[in-house]
Amino acid sequence: MTIKLYNTRTRRKEAFVPLDPENVRMYVCGPTVYDRAHLGNARPVVVFDVLYRLLRHEFGADHVTYVRNFTDVDDKINARAAESGRPIGEITAETTQWFLDDMAALGALEPDAMPRATAYIPQMVAMIEELIARGHAYAAEGHVLFAVESYAEYGALSGRTVEDMIAGARVEVAPYKRNPMDFVLWKPSPADLPGWDSPWGRGRPGWHIECSAMAHELLGESFDIHGGGNDLMFPHHENEIAQSRCAHPEGDFARVWMHNEMLQVEGKKMSKSLGNFFTVRDLLDEYDERFGIENIGPAIRLRLMQSHYRSPVDAALSYVEASATKLAEWWFWTELHRPEPLSEDEKFELINESPFLSALLDDLNTPAAISEIDAKVSQLRVIPENHTNIESYSNDKEKIAKQVLAWIGFLGFDFDGLKQLHPSHWQNRLKSRNLEFNELIENLVKERAEARLEKNFARADKIRDGFIAAGVTIKDSSEGTTWELKPGFDPSKLEALK
Ligand code: AMP
Ligand code: ZN
């Protein structure tokens, strides 16, 4: 089976042929570690996690190397340290761990290597020296700049000419630049900022050279896939290509360039600078506190997969909740026909040559793969009329349930972990957390029943409205009244009814 991937570089969907099937190599630009990751930052993590799983399936888990960096030297980090008065190392170490914890909650596998930029300064300096020696970079006033005019293909990835780029980009004009498009490889650091000794004085690297140097060190001068959000295509990826191709003209740098579209809020990219973001941690905590859901992470993961990675996706929380409901249903109907746990071989067979896998092979069509799961789960819900023989009926269901189990697992969901998304689970959790209010609710339910008997409808309605306001759902039936706590249950509103 062949994986087809859309290559930004050629603007075509192409059959993916690795340079070396024994070692398929992928680099994805990682976070700058100064703050919690927002939901948009999670999108490339989930997208390339699915690709990583697919590559491991096709080429073998031991034959794929996935590298994702941490940018731990950056002016945003310096600014955060200055405003908080905390040491830089403390901020980057803490934020790095936050990122790992939050992405683990989303079910993302850790890459094989997660290099920190500050551990690769000598490689960056060596690459910059190589660029100067080859006439692609120049030192000026403690800076080293890449000479954009020295690389004829500059702009090819994003399809721009140098003139377009000058016109469209907010390029920093500086006296030491020969051409306004020239970009910084190295810049001087004053004593109070992080800096390393170099042939150009004490300084620190520019952002773009970090990825070029780390990718070269860990994956070589030619590797298979380079990924990131499409907001990185220009200038970051364009600059990575220029640096790497000019320092190592014998190599291709990355063969296939993949870019995920943006997660949006009301039609605009979710971003720190626009202030329209919420962090993954906010959601994890909020759904735990308000809903009693231990980990909403799988629902965020599914939500991010429900759009194709080259289409925008809307961040509205109602969608995340709908994704939680879908996962709870997948869990419930599969659990009902609970198959035996699957062996690795069985899983492989159930995935191979399936329509589910075909969807993923086609440029990671996760929405189509999810539809395949939906179709199977709906077969678990119905009792087909032609099944008179109950035994064959349950065997069929078990077979389908096995398939669902394998497919759900392949997308990175821990099946047993989905139980906590089912309402029966989180409602019980909400109830047991609010045990102290059970008696109050019971008493009010009783009082309402009595008020109705006495035709004191004003009091009965007041209690009913109070329940609605507090987030208690009541259901009346011939057997009496039952109640449930809704997410966001607010006991103070009940107190007012006493
Ligand atoms: P940053 O820390 O801003 O460099 O971003 C880290 C990664 O998150 C990069 O691959 C970005 O392309 C990606 N990213 C940032 N914002 C969004 C968004 N709203 N939607 C999808 N990806 C994003
Ligand atoms: Zn990068």
Describe the structure.
Helices cover 48% and strands 14% of the residues. With 498 residues, the protein is of the alpha/beta class. It folds into 3 domains: 18-260, 3-Layer(aba) Sandwich (Rossmann fold); 264-424, Isoleucyl-tRNA Synthetase, Domain 1, CATH 1.10.730; 434-497, no CATH class. Strand 14 and strand 15 form a beta hairpin. Helix 1 (39-59) crosses helix 9 and helix 12 runs antiparallel to helix 13. The protein is globular. It starts with a strand and ends with a helix. The mean pLDDT is 93. Residues 29, 31-32, 40-41, 43-44, 228-229, 231-232, 260, 262-263, 269-271 line the site of adenosine monophosphate.
Quickly list its features.
four-stranded parallel beta sheet, Rossmann fold, alpha/beta, binds zinc ion, globular, Isoleucyl-tRNA Synthetase, Domain 1, 18 helices, four-stranded antiparallel beta sheet, 3 domains, binds adenosine monophosphate, 15 strands, single chain, 498 residues
